[in-house]
Amino acid sequence: MKKNKLKISDFSKESDQLVHIDPKDFIPLPPPYDKIEDEPIWKEIKPEYRETHECTLDDTVAVGIPKPKTPEEEKELVDKFVSGLRKLFEKENNWTFLQQLMLSLEHCAKCQTCVDACPIYEASGKNDLYRPTYRSEIWRRIVKKYVQKKPFSSFTDGDIDLNWTTVARLIELSYRCTICRRCAQTCPVGVDNALITHELRKVFSQEMGIAAKEIHEKGSVLQLKVGSSTGMNSEVVKDNIDFIDEDMTDITGIEVKSKWDVKGADLMLIHNAGEIIAWPENPGAFAIILEAAGINWTMSSEAVAYDGINYGLWYDDVQLARVAIKHAQAAKKLGVKKIVVGECGHAHKALTVIADRVLVGDLNVPRESAMTLLEDIVFSGKIKFDPSRNDFPVTLHDPCNMVRLMGIVEPQRRILRYLCPQFREMTPHGVHNYCCGGGSGFAIMSAHNFTNWRVAVSGRKKFKQILDAYSDCPGPETKKYLCAPCSNCKGQIRDIFQYYNAKEKSNLIYGGLVELIVNAMVDVKPGFISWEDAF
Amino acid sequence: MILNIATYLSILIFLITVIYRFMRIANTPAHLRWDLYPVPHEGFKKAKYGGSYYEELDWWTKPRHVSIASELNTMIPEIIFLKGVWESNKGLWFWSWAFHFGLYLAVFMAALVVASAIIGPASTFGVVLTKIAGISTIFGYILGGIGCIGMIFKRLFNERLKMFTTVGSIVNLVFILAIFVTGLKAISEVNLFTTDPSSLIGQLQIFVSGLVGFDSSVPLNSSVIWHIGVTLAFMVYMPFTHMAHFVLKWFTYHGIRWNDEPNTAGSALEKDLTKSLNFKPTWAADHIKGDGKKTWVDIATEKGFKDEKK
Ligand code: SF4
Ligand code: SF4
After folding, report:
1. CATH number at residue B118
2. Each residue of A445-492: pLDDT tens digit?
3. Regarding beta strands A339-341 and A394-396, do their DSSP bridges make them parallel or antiparallel, or are they unpaired?
4. CB B145 within 8 A of CB B137
5. Exposed (0-12), middle (13-18) or buried (19+): which is B90, by Cβ within 10 Å?
6. What percent of chain A is predicted at pLDDT more than 90?
């Protein structure tokens, strides 16, 4: 089936694959990434896997549900799906998002004003399957016809057939949107396609037990079981931080000692534990800054509380609440004055904004962003800086969860304007930024060829934007730094840069905000940020 | 007589349906936050770039400012000029704007007709209102009609829109077009720009006076009766469709996108949330096993974990 010929009714019709993705349709990248023939070849989904798993949506697979073996099994799954949809509209089951959902169900004017805002739709070459409204429209028609059983809904709201093909494809399609809410920002009525993605994922997870493995089984379930989605238990995490402290001491020449379980500390810092494994210089830099500023800080070694991730944010309200409560309980136990969330966008939003209405009573420990704390420290005069140490082109990626969805825009910019003489903005930026393409869990999802899709399609617009920000110095002779104060975004950006070989071709590296702060500290040995060691 | 009864009924159905839909949303439980920036009540400065109170260190210790002026600064251009559609969907903007603005003018005219009928069309102020109503009508109906026709064409033939066009979406537009067309037809048959009772505005004023005074003996031109009839039918139909967004948009913005109210200890919000946390879900997945007996609190705290680990 060809793009732009897609109809809503096609979605329910059995076929090998609903759409094919053709790199020739993708929006072009700037040189030297502009040759379509140089695009990395996509990994094939193995035929044996296709035989046994649902892969009929597009050229990739994110969830990969096993195919039902009998028509009875198919029917059972379809029925479960309908029962889950029904629960979405019951306050006992979905008080959390009922109001938002009812409004998004009933008030879309189908004007398509939102579609061009979507980086996935645009980057794919406007493949109809990725229109923000395509998924929503299918969901809306199913709800009207099969849940509300509205008379004449086929005429008034449009028709759809609900069968296993529809459900299987919807499961996959709910993982082709990063829930970045850029589309929602443009909707004149206030309808939210991202919310519909979110709620669909909830039906699959909360009713049918189906979710992307990386965010459920290896994500929130593992975190609640052993303490962290990285698999680290409390002892391992402390050992790793010890190693990081030693490394940091060697690299910076400053004695670094991270703090654990300090009762009554002024703040409890929560990192995304992925930083400890993948970007140890980030928690290291935090420790250097907090110590240098003389702050009474701590981390908690309590299970779950040493890992700020909360993947429930993207697919499951129960998992979200469980993790957030653990975070708050740890802070309450230590009697800290506040929780500060490190450089992780979704952890920011989950704990500060979304869980705000889960944490009642004494669990409502004040929570804030590391961005404001860092701004306060940088401009407090407690630490001496030499901005000339950061005299290379720097641009800033705005993590959707922290910026568009929380309104934390300026603190990180004020720091960069002060410490990075060649700071430049991307276009657009701030609350109108483009998602890195790794949002809603994509950054950690790599099964089969999903990395191809999330880099070449969902991350494409971001990569273009990054390259455009350095259009005055595109070549490898200029060292360039992309500041991405978010672990998930960094994971995605790492994969984009590796996929397109951006380090070699553009001498482009990425990292967090704290690394730039430490790099500019006069008391630190020069060269904290190193292009040679970066990957 | 029939027309008068139909009008009372239509107004009643319209009000009941709109209020019902409004209350249905208003009565949903306090929900999780889902704000989206810019949030204009953060004030002019922050609204300009989309900042929030989370940009302040120890934000919970600071007073919360809510700027109505800044909110209006966002809402007025959106309502009058459909700024969002202009910015993100230029191809549709003119038609959509003409359509909406035509409707605004028509509603404005209706309000003026009612006001002038009550104060007396022949009074000095009544004459002024009548003149404004006349101008508003002609502009509104022509603009709205053009907008409707443009939107129907767009919905039927535009690549971007037609995939989503349903019979219902065309019926909605045709219905509104019928109001404008019957209105224009009435104008062509009876005069508009005079305060004469035989003009459209004059006829409508007589009709409204009749409604207010429960007098159904007023003589109306047949084209005016048609115009009123179509409008009444639309009033009954509209609140059942997505077009009820004209009032429910209040929630999508104030209740959701701009709802950044923090949960504070002892607040009414906290009380509502505590109630919701005691709801008993029935989500069936193995990691939840909602049985309608355990509450959200049970499921989200240790008790729930233990059940899950079993
Ligand atoms: S979500 Fe909003 S912008 Fe998109 S089609 Fe619906 S009403 Fe229009
Ligand atoms: S939330 Fe983002 S990725 Fe999803 S449809 Fe909207 S713009 Fe596209």
Report:
1. 1.20.950.20
2. 999 999 999 999 999 999 999 999 999 999 999 999 999 999 999 999
3. unpaired
4. no
5. exposed
6. 96
> How much is the average pLDDT of A515-521?
98
Instruction: Give the model confidence (pLDDT) of B174-186 as tens digits.
Output: 999 999 999 999 9
Is the Cβ–Cβ distance between A15 and A55 less than 8 Å?
Answer: no
Residue B274: which of A351, A327, A95, A311 has the closest Cα?
Answer: A95
Give the separation between CA A153 and CA A51, rounded to whole angstroms: 36
pLDDT tens-digit map of B198-253: 788 999 999 999 999 888 787 888 999 999 999 999 999 999 999 989 899 999 99
Our CA dihedral for B267, B272, B276, B277, rounded to 10 degrees, sits at 20
SS3 of residue A521 by DSSP: strand
Q: Is residue B161 part of a domain?
A: yes
The answer, for B89 touching chain A at a CB cutoff of 8 Å, is yes
Q: Buried b vs exposed e over A110-147: b needs ≥16 C-beta within 10 Å?
A: bbbbbbbbbbbbbbbbbbbbbbbbbbbbbbbbbbbbbb
In a domain, B168, yes or no: yes
Residues 6+ apart with CB under 8 A from A157: A140, A141, A144, A145, A150, B166, B168
Nearest CA to ligand 1 atom 1: A191
A217-375 CATH:
3.40.50.1860
Q: How far from B139 is each of A450, A504, B187, B229, CA to CA, in Å?
A: 55, 63, 12, 21
Is B110 a domain residue? Answer: yes
Within a domain: residue B212? Answer: yes
Chain B: residue whose CA lies nearest to A326: B301
- Interchain proximity A191–B252, CB inside 8 Å: yes
Q: What is the pLDDT of residues A161-173, one digit of tens each?
A: 999 999 999 999 9
B289 CB within 8 Å of a chain A CB: no
ipTM given for this complex: 0.95
- Whether A187 is in the pocket of ligand 2, judged by its Cβ within 6 Å, is no
Helix %, strand %, coil % for chain B, to 5? 70, 0, 30
Whether residue A104 has its Cβ less than 6 Å from ligand 1: no
CA distance A112 to chain B (A): 7
**What are the residue boundaries of the structural domains of chain A, listed by start?**
9-207, 217-375, 384-519
Q: What is the pLDDT of residue A421?
A: 98
B253 touches A: beta carbon within 8 Å = yes
Instruction: Give the pLDDT mean for A337-360.
Output: 97
Per-residue pLDDT tens digits for B118-171: 998 889 999 999 999 999 999 999 999 999 999 999 999 998 899 999 999 999
B266 pLDDT more than 50: yes
Q: Is A318 in the pocket of ligand 1 (CB under 6 A)?
A: no
In the block, tokens 């040679």 appear at A532
Helix (H) / strand (E) containing B24: helix B2-26
For residue A404, report the distance from its CA to the centre of ligand 1, in Å.
19
CA distances from B282 to A100, A171, A195, A414 (A): 20, 21, 21, 48
Average per-residue pLDDT in chain B?
A: 92
- Note whether A99 and A122 are within 8 A (CB): no
Domain count, chain B: 1
What residue numbers bound the domain in which B191 lies? 2-33+82-257
Say which DSSP state A428 is in. Answer: S
Res. B195 pLDDT band, cuts 50 70 90 = low
Atom of ligand 1 nearest to the CA of A111: 8
- Write the CA distances from A166 to A85, A321, A438, B284, integer angstroms: 14, 30, 25, 21
Assign A535 a pLDDT band (cuts: 50, 70, 90).
Answer: low
Which candidate, B36, B295, B60, places its Cα nearest to that of A364? B60
Residue A457: nearest ligand to its CA? Answer: 2
pLDDT mean over A149-157: 90
